[in-house]
Specification:
It contains nine helices and ten strands. With 339 residues, it is of the alpha+beta class. It folds into two domains: 98 residues, Phosphorylase Kinase, domain 1, CATH 3.30.200; 225 residues, Aminoglycoside phosphotransferase (APH), C-terminal lobe (Aminoglycoside 3'-phosphotransferase, Chain: A, domain 2). The chain has a five-stranded antiparallel beta sheet, sandwiched between helices. Strand 1 and strand 2 form a beta hairpin. Helix 3 packs across helix 7 and helix 7 crosses helix 8. It starts with 7 loop residues before the first helix and ends in a 14-residue tail after the last helix.
């Protein structure tokens, strides 16, 4: 990692106070930015740790989307994001974000070991986000009409033309993925094409008219983006650069992928019902339980595409197993129950 990404001048400008020194304590894997924990020595002698995200080129698009989230969307509800501490934006495809260090505040990743209380807190957090923007997605803040075909873009529900674009992107990437993934059987390969042939028209039918669409996090998972403190069942959530219009149950379906259980169908149905009850209690109307179940199963299918973009045989097979356990392909054979 190049030190200029987190220079004294850049960090000082972002924080709005004089800085004497910046040390990179730890770096984190990220696909579109350089992300690190920084120890910042202020000119007044005080020191603090922050999380720095330095994005350039195409990655700056997502970073600016995250800035818009912090500045214009987060104030609209009781959001779970860390505090934004500062931004340096040169306007030349280079941007630096500094946010609160959740580790310093006592928050940790739990992976698949999420407790029952933490799961309830997670669902309440998702309900808060989805209910706030239900049928009220601020498209002007998302640049939703120009999405790049990244690993999480195929779940975008609006505008409709992006669904066709992403179906084509998945097919294109699958050719490269399958050329490498020689371990996959013919049946495992054929499954993707069968799903894609039905997925595209079904998604288009589901979102026709733009009804029952909300703002989703888009990359909501316990392995790297959702953190808990020992005394707080409600999580803190990072990486809001993948915000997009989508089906609300997608965020829940995605985060449950890594949580082990003996009966996936029974477990997920109980949690989904808790989510749906929460939406209804938060004032969401004309969203039937039948449509919520349909959206959830459809979202599990869409998660299969993540593994294709990431070229992951392991996640591909996990996604296929989830599709089978939840009988998800039934939603490809029947019209979405939108009334």
């Amino acid at each position: 990692m190049s030190q200029p990404a987190f220079s004294v001048a850049g960090v000082s400008q972002a924080l709005g106070v004089p800085v004497a020194g910046v040390d990179v304590v730890e770096t984190f894997a990220a696909s579109s930015a350089e992300v690190a924990r920084l120890r910042v020595e202020l000119a007044n002698g005080r020191a603090l740790t922050v999380i720095g995200k330095h994005a350039t080129g195409a990655g700056a698009v997502g970073a600016r989307r995250e800035v818009r989230f912090f500045e214009q969307l987060a104030p609209q509800w009781d959001h779970p994001a860390p505090h934004l501490l500062g931004v340096t934006d040169t306007g030349e495809d280079r941007i630096l974000l500094l946010t609160e260090d959740l580790d310093a505040a006592g928050y940790r990743l739990v992976g698949g070991g999420v407790s029952e209380d933490q799961m309830r807190g997670t669902i309440e957090t998702l309900v808060g986000l989805h209910a706030r923007f239900w049928d009220d997605v601020p498209f002007e803040l998302l640049d939703a009409a120009h999405p790049e075909p990244s690993a999480t873009r195929s779940v975008q529900a609006w505008p409709p033309e992006v669904i066709t674009m992403h179906a084509a992107a998945v097919r294109s990437e699958a050719a490269s993925f399958f050329a490498e993934a020689i371990e996959l059987t013919a049946a495992e390969r054929t499954l993707l094409e069968e799903i894609l042939d039905a997925w595209e028209p079904q998604f288009l039918a589901r979102v026709a008219g733009g009804r029952a669409i909300t703002l989703i996090h888009g990359d909501f998972h316990f392995l790297g983006n959702v953190f808990f403190a020992p005394d707080d069942a409600r999580p803190k959530v990072i990486d809001w650069s993948e915000l997009k219009p989508g089906l609300g149950p997608h965020d829940l379906a995605f985060c449950l992928t890594v949580v082990p259980c003996d009966d996936r169908l029974a477990r997920d149905r109980v949690l989904l019902r808790h989510y749906w009850d929460g939406l209804c209690g938060a004032g969401v109307q004309n969203y039937s339980w039948e449509l919520c179940e349909w959206d959830f199963r459809f979202s599990v299918i869409s998660n299969l595409f993540q593994s294709v973009f990431q070229h992951s045989i392991g996640w591909y097979r996990k996604s296929v197993a989830a599709i089978e356990a939840l009988d998800c392909r039934t939603v490809l054979a029947e019209p979405p129950p939108v009334r």
